[in-house]
């Protein structure tokens, strides 16, 4: 019957069969599932569009009139190649993330086929997909003193199936009133730089000022297209360059006196900023230390322009070894925060050094729902924060004007998040610092919060001895999570012990993109099987695969205080109420392991609220059709240490006094399991230590920036508790007030303001 077709039904469960992604492993797909629910390759590309992708599973009639439609409105033309495979061209989008698309074979009458395309931030696309501005600095400084000659563009010529190509110049601008409904973003075709040149992968030219009004466009991009398309035609096969400052095509007025031209632009920008709302008041303060910045992974992420793990190449921030960006844009103005640190781990402020961190009116990564300024990924930021840096700091000597509008935030209001972890044959360390071992078998609520409907659930499975028989302990095999109505992320070990990440029940691959902008969260896959989920509330979940088990850390900002429950306890700074049951009764923290087992069992999830994916017979039988807590599985509560056991001696030398490590070696008979438990435990202790540099103070105290006196100077750029700043007057001046001031525990400086 017609109802059993996946035509226009992908993702649905039908009466007699399924069009959901889980249908394949369960063997319950509708017969035409593979025909209508599309698999594509590649599955991602730049938001600028123009990428040709192949539809893998369906063969089309060579005479079909193919139309691809994205988001139900943006149409691009597709084609069927000689081998009968269909292709679509991705469109120019002003957003990142998964974009639904459909395909029509009847020239746009019906769109029965569907799939999704991952649109990616332009600077996160692989280099080979873009054309390269050789010596990019030269392009962006062209016409300033000592920068002239010819410019060269290179590209992978196989990326375009064309013998002759055109090279076009496009400009980006935003029109309408700032922060109003009519504020719109537009990429606009300007002119064709070179026409019908051979597609060799290289082009050199001597730039001349652009004709007419085109030379007023100072921020843009190049596009290479097959020359059989018309100028500026949208959504055709293309290779884009990186976005850049268009110094090389600016008018004669720029070339004659770049400094004067840029100074005028800088002053004009400054006047415009004066009229715009102050976004600085609502952006999050920076972490005080590098250790905190790298530990607070739910709210801050490495800034690729200055990364300590990639050799600290910090072009825009001399003196810094590492910078991070706030992941979420600020609530009202969608502004961004950046924080940079020197080799001692101290935050660098723009007041003291041009290497200081600068906040951004436009968040570099954009922010949901994207599509409109100031939320356009990358490009809004270029318009407000980068091209203005060229005007004031790089093309002229007016950096003080820029730094006045983009001065660093210090860390006075920064509060570190709290961390809770689970690892090994599950050992739990709660937000308030209690630790216990709970070895139930089933699916449990690790933490849930009424504040943002955050839910993190864990599944435990029986551990097996090296010889294959079952041990009387369990380990975390899957973790699933969601906040409000965000996408659902699950990280799990598959039956053949591969680490898998599922997005809304579908296994996803990180082979093309390691970072994904998803609904209500960002997802990052780091090196060595590290998965980080960053929810829009600032809560973060880190999951690592180690030795067949998962270890997990949840980081929650201070606003979650008194708003959590589950196995990770009630986050409120009070350890006494950690064992709180669903019905709000509590149990003593000195409870026996058997009582703790009952507490854990109380937090079993139900099928109605489970976030897990049950896409194999094994999962259905063991977890879906069964009780969520397996009451018949009784674990070992007190493992026996037999002095004659040869493993005990090795255990002592491996674990030393770590009780979790010893427990796991004895119960699993595996030193490898014990070792990964020991490392997870160390990591957690280090994380807690880094987040709270001074345990007696719970937060780092900063007294705020101090200026030097007029006609004098100061020594010291550290403004944290206990630091001393001293002052010296220039020759022939005398100092009144304090010669040195110390940052006190009250958050105020000692002494009086000095003057010379």
Automatic annotation (TrEMBL):
A Pfam family of the record is: Sushi
Q: Which residues cross the membrane?
A: none
Domain SMB: start-end pairs: 2-41
Q: Which PROSITE patterns match?
A: AMOP (PS50856), SMB_1 (PS00524), SMB_2 (PS50958), SUSHI (PS50923), VWFD (PS51233)
Mind telling me which CDD domains this protein's record contains? CCP (cd00033)
Q: Which terms are listed as keywords in the entry?
A: Disulfide bond, Membrane, Sushi, Transmembrane, Transmembrane helix
Gene Ontology cellular component annotations, sorted alphabetically = membrane
Main localisation, per the record? membrane
* Residue ranges of every copy of the AMOP domain listed in the record: 258-406
Q: Domain Sushi, which positions?
A: 701-756
Disulfide pairs here are 729-756
Q: Fetch the InterPro entries from UniProt.
A: AMOP_dom, C8-3_MUC4, Epithelial_Barrier/Signaling, Ig-like_fold, Ig_E-set, Somatomedin_B-like_dom_sf, Somatomedin_B_dom, Sushi/SCR/CCP_sf
Q: Which SMART domains match?
A: AMOP, CCP, SO, VWD
Name its cellular compartments: Membrane
Recorded hits in SUPFAM superfamilies, A to Z, give: Complement control module/SCR domain, E set domains, Somatomedin B domain
What positions does the domain VWFD occupy?
418-611
Name this polypeptide is given: Sushi domain-containing protein 2
